[in-house]
Design goal:
Layout lengths: L2 E3 L5 H12 L3 E3 L12 E2 L1 E3 L4 H16 L1 H7 L1 E4 L3 E5 L4 E5 L4 E2 L6 E2 L2 E6 L6 E3 L2 E5 L2 E5 L6 E5 L3 E4 L2 E4 L1 E10 L4 H20 L5 H17 L3
Antiparallel strand pairs: 1-14, 2-4, 3-7, 4-6, 5-17, 6-17, 7-15, 8-9, 10-14, 10-17, 11-16, 12-13, 12-15
Helix pairs in contact: 1-2, 4-5
GO molecular function: 2-oxoglutarate-dependent dioxygenase activity; iron ion binding; L-ascorbic acid binding
Keywords: Dioxygenase, Iron, Metal-binding, Oxidoreductase, Vitamin C
Cofactor: L-ascorbate; Fe(2+)
Length: 225
Amino acid sequence: MLITIPDILDAAALTEAKELLAKTGWADGRKTAGPEAAKVKRNEQADLSSRSGTALHTLLNDAIRKNAVFQAAAQPARLSRLLVSRSGEAQGYGTHVDNALMGTGANRIRTDLSFTLFLNDPADYEGGELTIDWAGMIHSMKLEAGSLLLYPSTSLHRVETITSGQRTVCVGWVQSQVRTSEQRDILFDLANLKVSVRASLPEGAPEHLALSKVIANLRRLWSEV
């Protein structure tokens, strides 16, 4: 599934993120790419080990983890460490598939889902669309600042070449508690249905308990712990 989640970062959080970015150093993005991806990757990545970088990582990580829609859609067991990248004129990221495993030792995860959190407005740059080949269709996305796109790590995707301006995003990966996309889709639909039922039926209605039971039992059946 491809899911757009608006307002992961509100206006105040975006302002704080931009202030921290202004204090953070940058390095060649190919340092964090796999051998094949490095051949088509042309961007820079923020140094998140510095004081400002650490504060930025905490800000973004907390906002993503606390978002209810992200939790319902991704069913996250573990998240990778975040990366923040920027691409200027003539830069981008050619077609690639994300590594199946990322990190080392205790931080190693299986990548089930990828996400991109846009940190500046689409009007700030030309080009730079995130283009995803998924389910037999090509999806080209360029979201508002503060919005996140969640998509399968199994898909081929690319960042179109920037023709003017600068694109800044946060990217990361999820190892889900629920391994298959079909099962995650069902649980996400049920979570949305639960919200609708809560709004339309009185508290204590038997439908609430029945739906909670179905969700709990499907998670018990499908979840990896």
